[in-house]
Amino acid sequence: MDGSAQGSRPVSDRVWTSPNVLSMLRLVCVPIFLWLILTRQDNWALVILTLSGVSDYLDGKIARECNLVSRVGQLLDPLADRLYILSTLLGLAWREIIPWWLVAILVCREVFGTGLLMVVRHYGYRALPVHFIGKAATFDLLYAFPLILLGQGDSMFATVALPIGWAFAWWGTVLYWVAGIMYAWQTRDVVRVARAVNP
Predict the structure, then answer these.
(1) CB 92 within 8 Å of CB 149
(2) How far apart, in whole angstroms, are the C-alpha atoms of residue 1 and residue 120?
(3) Per-residue pLDDT band at 108 (split at 50, 70, 90)
(4) Does residue 13 form part of some domain?
(5) Which residue from 63, 135, 182, 196 has the highest number of Cβ atoms inside 10 Å of its Cβ?
(6) How far apart are CA 195 and CA 50, in angstroms?
(7) How far is CA 166 from the centre of its chain?
């Protein structure tokens, strides 16, 4: 639920901006990334995931510094993040690297967030402002599963990466649900204000 509030920055309706093109390329690479994980081509999967992380940083930086924040970008960027998390979850669960119940917990949180989004849109809001907890949860999860994937080897690096990856995964999962509860409180406030204005 990450339609972000950009403060006083102008938000345009432009589609073909450089940040949006980067987000589109990230989305195009999602099925490729999932195929690489499922076929156990982990090195190439990690390359795509690393490039995705770099492009995620760049598109946000370019959008802010060059005043290229757009409504399309506000949708594409969090969508790409969620699809990479989901594809990694499914791929690792399919390979029995992570348990399916962890997938269920995170998917339920996403369904919960989608339900809240539908409620606020019913009352005329595009989305709720992103807060730090939500960003921290996404950050943790985006780093957790690549580290868990790296931790499947027998090297010293894998031995170190695996517990760090699981630490990120647990923190990210908890924060993801904490963020969901905070969004629920925000949604309650939105509904109360909307009903007070239009009883």
Answers:
(1) yes
(2) 11
(3) very high
(4) no
(5) 63
(6) 45
(7) 18
> If we measure between CA atoms, which residue out of 55, 86, 77, 111 comes closest to residue 4?
77
Q: Tell the burial category of 135 from Cβ atoms under 10 Å away from its Cβ (0-12, 13-18, 19+).
A: middle
Whichever domain contains 26, its CATH number is: 1.20.120.1760
pLDDT at 10: 65
Decide if 166 contacts 95 (C-beta within 8 A). no
176 neighbors 113 (Cβ within 8 angstroms): no
Residue 102 has what pLDDT? 94
Tokens 């709720």 belong to which residue? 128
Q: 52 — phi, psi (to 5°)?
A: -65, -40
In sequence order, which ranges of the chain are alpha helices (DSSP H)?
18-38, 42-65, 71-94, 100-122, 132-150, 156-197
Looking at residue 135, what DSSP letter applies? H
| pTM given for the model | 0.78
Using CA atoms, how far apart are residues 77 and 175, in angstroms rounded to an integer?
20
Q: Give the chain's domain count.
A: 1
Instruction: Estimate to the nearest angstrom the gap between the alpha carbon of 183 and the chain centroid.
Output: 15
b/e map of 26-53 (b: 16 or more CB within 10 Å)?
A: beebbeebbebbeeeebeebbebbeebb
Domain that holds residue 62: 18-197
CA distance 142 to 195: 38
Q: Does residue 5 fall inside a structural domain? A: no
